[in-house]
Amino acid sequence: MKTNAYSPENIGVVITTYNQPAWLEKVLAGYEAQSVNDFRILIADDGSGDATRAVIEKFKQRGKLDIDHVWHEDRGFRKCQILNKVIFHTDCDYLIFTDGDCIPEPDFVAKHGQLARPGYFLSGGYVKLTMAASTAIRTHDIQAGIPFSISWLTANGQKYSYKLWKLLKSQWLKYLLNNITPTKSTWNGMNSSTWTEAIRACNGFNEDMQYGGLDRELGERLYNLGLKGKQVRYSVSCLHLDHPRSYDTPETWAKNYAIRAEVKRLGLYWTPNGMTKTSLPSVAFAAKTPAPDRSFTHPKNPKAATV
To answer: Is the pLDDT of residue 245 over 70?
Structure first.
């Protein structure tokens, strides 16, 4: 997908999943309905069972999506580990990160590709659905683009609020809302993207992190590396299907907050417990001693892309 001098050459959509086959089926239907088709689906599977595998195989057989299914054994919450495996092995130069419970808008991939810029990551948005609206959505609705209508959602159990403005159709209004929103451009696991080389320069996700802020921690290290966040929450959005979270505990949040506080205090961009288990004490303290090799380049436009 190449729309300008800085556009990615090979986009990968990283979808994390764990034993939610019904939701994953709706999500993959959303990627079949994208306005572009030159991208790869990279499923980061944290140990799902046969039902999830059957859904993935069904979509592979249909042949509309180029799917890589990366799986490891279920040994508890290991989302960061499976994400690092995907990042380490992919040959995609640009990665969109989302979840197996997030249905993309029809132009989701196209917008990420069009808005990508060297030295930036994109901070997209989402609409959190009620269980009633989540279950009301059918795959044929997704193919027709129906669930992305505010009126359809409110008629199917979604309470109206300003958060539904992410589904407005006016492009100039989306642009305006992106620029006036008080929400910071953070790295959001359900809808963010950047260059693969930048994530690798940070050593990927911190595998010490459990549920609760693990995505934000990567974004904070990307900032320390030198990247800037671009707010696109009204331009690029998805529908977040409802589900319980048994792994959401006060203990994991407390641990994760402590890790993030240390990242901010020291200006860390590198995690020693990431894709590789390597400590770089002399260059990891970005705020204290800028590393000589912190720059990365766009593969096709190196001068313009250097951070």
So the answer is: no
